[in-house]
Amino acid sequence: MTWAPDRDRGPAPRTVPERHAAVPAARRLPAGGRADPPAGTTLEVLRALGSGPRGLQESEVAERLVRYGENVVPGRRPSSWLRRVVRSVRDPFTAVLFCLAMASAAVAAWTTAGVITALVVVSCVLRGSGEYRADRASAALRELVAATVTVRRRADADAAPLFREVPVDQVVPGDVVALAPGDLVPADLRLLSATGLTVHQAALTGESAPVPKFPVDAPGSAVPAADEPQLCFQGSSVASGSGTAVVLATGARTRFAATFRGVAARRPRSAFDRSVRGISWSLIRFMLLTPPLVLLANAGLRGRGLETVPFAVAVAVGLTPEMLPVIVTTVLARGASQLARSGGVIVKRLPALHDLGAADVLCTDKTGTLTLDRPVVESSTGPDGAADPEVLRWAARNSLWTLQLADVPSPDALDEAILAAEPDDDGTDCDGVAAVPFDPLRRLSTAVLRTAGAPGADVLVVKGSAEAVLERCAAVRQDGQDVALDDGERARLLRACAEQAESGLRVLAVALAERPARPGSYDYGARDEHGLVFLGTVALRDAAAGTAPGALSALARHGVAVKVLTGDHPGTAARACRDIGLDPGTVITGADLDALSEAELAGVAGRTTVFARCSPEHKARVVGALRSAGHVTGFLGDGVNDLPALHAADVGICPRDAVDVAREAADVVLASKDLTAIAQALAAGRRSSANIATYLRVALSSNLGNVLAMLAAGLLVPFLPMLPAQVLLQNLCFDTAQLAFAHDRPGEAEVRRPAVLRPHALLRFVAGFGLLNAAADIATFAVLAVSVRGIGASEHQDAFHAGWFTENLLTQALVMVLLRTGRGAAGSRLPAPILWSTAALAVVGLLLPLSPAASLLGFTALPLFFYALLAVVLTAYGTALQAAQTRYESRAAQVASGS
Asked: pLDDT (tens digit, 9 = 90+) per residue, 669-719?
């Protein structure tokens, strides 16, 4: 950025002690903490800051850097890899497994304790590593709010002030900074001078249109607001024009930082937390009851004592889905990795991928998602409301010659849209004489032209707000004739313009005036903008995002309702929605929300699509109301004004170019602010959630069946039905095979609906299919009783253990194939990883009892007759399993269609 010093001069500065002595103590900025910037007239503010238009001395800057600290945006300290691994221990299943490992160690069951501890360590390392990698990827996206800033400083009290570039973190209160188009505002500022300055502050307020800013020498309010024209806040950016300003606050004292601190409280539990914790604690309660029941049953009926403790612990571990943390982390990490590679989407918090898949409501702002943050011409009409291309032609000449003659630093977005809509008129049939650029006070711009057909006359082409232009008009052009403009006609034209504005259009009025040609030395100005002839209006709208209609259709097919929360005008928001095929319905404003109780808001939020004129607090209230009504809610935002809603949502989403603190608060970072990217991420989340649900269905139903069979066998046979080491080996084989579920490909039906893990529905499924599994196990006991009669008594226990071990692994392989994805999965093609894992599981079950290691594990070989009878049992079990699965899918489809 380059800048030349202007001619502002101020009184010679006093020394630092003199300045502070002259400033009332109540007005001095504190060295730490949050304080409102000084208020008052411009002179009073400069005095309170100990500064002046000529800027600070270098010695003063050094002293203030020590006093106030660097101008650094507050951020969240990233957690280390070790801390994330340790934090994983707080998972409820992990904590219970630790307790079971300690119980096993207490009775010297070191093998059991060692296996359980290994499972816990692997789970914690996988989960912590996955989240750490995601955090590092997100950290790579962080950018400074502004890299450098142009400041006016002096080497000493007698030196001339010079503008120079300094790092943004070296700016201090009292610095005088220069603003130019494209600059990011580095701190909270008060304007000293400005020329055509407009500022984008959508990141703070949600307002998409640039806001005019100009110095006002008035006291202002005690607590400055974003709509005060003399104030610019950190997080906004310069759209056009230029200016100089004095720094009011930096670092942690800015409005930007205060907003970040205001939402730093602990966020509520997400959908993932609620569902997994519900399932976990239901299982944990049942699991903790199992060891005492096993001990009591064996002591009362078989007279066994503490020697059954390892078996009781093994039974509890058998019921536990101990690989759930590993499976969840693996599935979510794989889904997050695929999103990062294919779509440039970074998932910072792994459970957020599940929350995204479970979402049935997506709240978003308007700018950048539904619209492209640039206007396009909608219409050009005459005073009678009929289309008139001549109005657009004159508006384009105004834009063209104003840009060329007024030395505007950068073209205004409205001017660019007008010129793009009139590409054939290059202005060659006229010469530009002078231009008076847009001014926020006048609210119009003027180009003075001299046409080839009338060399003795100057034509003033005026373009601006309808109110400003019409109050300067004396006539209106109708059917080529200039007719005097009376008050009634002026009021009618103003009403017509207001109706267009209410419908979401930005309206510019265009007028002409002819003046005798002036000599070259004449300086045209605002005094010449009178006696105009009104030509008509040019209406502009926000350009709709080309991908928005298709993305909305995809979200609707996936059962996601889109709600728009914006700081824009209700009409602007409603028109943007209609342009992309989204019915806005009745628009609710922030003022309407203020009048609603929380209970009333929950009902209104569910049936309303567009919320306009929303403050950050309004957005957070709407999101909270949707969640309280039972919806899993995502929020897409990119500004400081979106922080409360990002924290209030189940999953916060932001684009890569969002402000730094929004990226810190978000759970998912998109490559671009595009609803299409969200639809892709949502599908990935649902596939991951479906795979997690598959693991829970398969593991819990199989584990429950085995535990019930173990309890029954413990009462039926005079020995332990399975040794503790055999139980853990069986669990290890089954759990290792189930890691392949991370590579499963759920059916399309699983992606079309929100993937919510509902504890009660899951437990009903587990209970039904677990009983079926227990029935297969008990049938195997009967097969063993028939087939092992010829084996010696000393080998009877080993044969029972071997037969049941083989049957368990074979039935678990069947369950993995038939129950892997729920609805419609049995007929789908089996992915290679699952095919190989189930095949390996079956091979281990068949060959391990026949291997040389069989005696070490307490197994012995079985007769062929056993395998023939076992095949009958497995066939019957598979048939019953398929029939039950078909019935379950049918009922689930009826429930889904009814909802």
From this structure: 887 777 788 888 888 888 888 888 888 888 888 888 887 887 777 777 777
The whole-number pLDDT of residue 806 equals: 92
Going by C-beta distance under 8 Å and a sequence separation of 6 or more, which residues neighbour residue 627? 268, 633, 648, 649, 650
Q: How far apart are CA 897 and CA 691, in angstroms?
A: 22
Helix, strand, coil abundance in the chain, percent, nearest 5: 50, 15, 30
365 is catalytic: yes
Beta bridge partners of 544: 371
669 vs 333, higher pLDDT: 669
What DSSP element (H or E) covers 431? strand 430-439
Angle between helices 271-302 and 759-787 (to 10 degrees): 30
Q: What number of other Cβ atoms are within 10 A of residue 24's Cβ?
A: 9
CB atoms within 10 A of CB 342: 10
Dist. CA 263–CA 617, nearest whole Å: 10
- The three-state secondary structure class of 632 is coil
In this structure, how many other beta carbons lie within 10 angstroms of the beta carbon of residue 876? 13
- Interatomic CA distance for residues 877 and 807, integer angstroms: 11
Global confidence as pTM: 0.69
- Percent pLDDT > 90 in the chain is 22
CB-based contacts of 85-90 (< 8 A; 24+ apart in sequence)? 85/124, 85/125, 85/127, 85/128, 85/129, 86/124, 86/128, 87/128, 88/123, 88/124, 88/127, 88/128, 88/325, 89/120, 89/124
Of the residues 365, 415, 439, 777, which is catalytic? 365
What's the pLDDT tens digit per position in 770-825? Answer: 899 889 988 988 888 888 765 445 567 888 889 989 999 999 899 888 887 544 44
